[in-house]
Amino acid sequence: MKIVQVESFILRVPIPRLVTDAFNRADRWGLPGVLVRTDDGLVGTGYTSTLSHGDEAITRIIDDVYTPLLLGEDPRDTQRHWERLYWSDAHWVGRLGVTQMALAAVDIALWDLKAQACELPLWRLVGGHKAGSVPSYNTDGGWLNFEVPRLVDEMTAIVEQGWTGVKMKIGKPNPREDVARVAAVRAALGPDVDLMIDVNQRWDRTRALGWAHRFEPFDITWLEEPMDPDDVEGHARLADATHIPIALGEHVYSRTAFRDFVSRGNVGYLQADVTRLGGITEWLAVAEMAQAHHVPVVPHHADMMRVHQHLGAGHAAVPMIECIPWLQEVFAEPADIRQGTFHVPDTPGASTAFDDDAFARYRVA
């Protein structure tokens, strides 16, 4: 099996409604990615995700740097290709961010091909830990732009659909407003629903140390991305200052960076994201490290749960995944979610293939 064509693409897909958190505002989703075709007719699909900014920079790395290194190669040699692309000319201009996201798109496509060639769904190929299903928690009712009555209604509706864990955004300019919002949601949900809160990096160290403990009375499962994700020392100090576990990882781009957090013992949950981390190859390295340190991995949703449902079902480090049920209509196999649990396809591959009509409709490059 040899790679004969590498074709980049960019999709821009509307999401159901305008949403905001403390850092972002979104009404559409960008999917820059790649189709990798082989001489025996297989097509591997991989992508990363954005808020529709910087997509062209990602595909430019794929076209100009990664594609020449892939043509004529066997796509099943995923570890070898990952090392070659990581240490390619792209390494000179950036080891994180755009280059790592471009590498993620390619690596996901190669694993999709490997799973197809093995005639296995990805979840079996990476371990088959959970027999084809994985629980999830839902973030889609907790947006920062929702006023309290709508926030409570939406969070309650998610629980009524079968989810037992939900997440809400905090990070208002006045943290007292955050406390009031969390109090209202906890009162509405009662004590038997897991409630996570997400600051989206908006606190500095002083605010984090001064305010995190004020959320403790609400039985918070985790405090997510409280501050700069590069501030390892700050997270260590915060972990000592509150009994709420800290979660982070959607903006951590390498196993080395995750190692620094894990070795300090200052995070309770790793939210490794396959679309940011350089793909499945690097994600698996992080999951193995996390498991060795008895720290659970709960992947961030940015792949729209396509690959993460497989990794969650396949790997023992993952107790659950995040769910924001957008964009399912653009994929050939929409997610099968029942009572908050993903039932993962048995179709060979990584479930990244797009619906042909949707792909044509939303493709901009």
Describe this structure in words.
The protein is α/β, with parallel strands linked by helices. The chain has two domains: 124 residues, Enolase-like, N-terminal domain (Enolase-like, domain 1, 2-Layer Sandwich), CATH 3.30.390; 221 residues, Enolase-like C-terminal domain (TIM Barrel), CATH 3.20.20. Strands 5-6-7-8-9 form a five-stranded parallel β-sheet. Strands 10-4-12-11 form a four-stranded mixed β-sheet. It has a three-stranded antiparallel β-sheet with strand order 1-2-3. A hairpin with a 2-residue loop joins β11 and β12. α2 runs antiparallel to α4. The mean pLDDT is 97. InterPro entries: Enolase-like_C_sf, Enolase-like_N, Enolase_C-like, Mandel_Rmase/mucon_lact_enz_CS, Mandelate_racemase_C, Mandelate_racemase_N_dom, RHMD-like. Its cofactor is Mg(2+). Keywords: Magnesium, Metal-binding.
Feature tags:
365 residues, alpha/beta, 4-stranded mixed beta sheet, 12 strands
- Taking Cα atoms only, what radius of gyration do you get, to the nearest Å? 20 Å
Overall shape: it is: globular
Low-pLDDT sequence parts: none
Helix tally equals 13
What is the helical fraction, as a range of percent? 25-40%
N-end to C-end Cα span: 28 Å
Strand portion: 15-25%
CATH superfamily of the largest domain: Enolase-like C-terminal domain
User: What's the CATH class label of the largest domain?
Assistant: Alpha Beta
Largest sheet: 5 strands, parallel
User: How many β-strand runs?
Assistant: 12
CATH architecture of the largest domain: Alpha-Beta Barrel
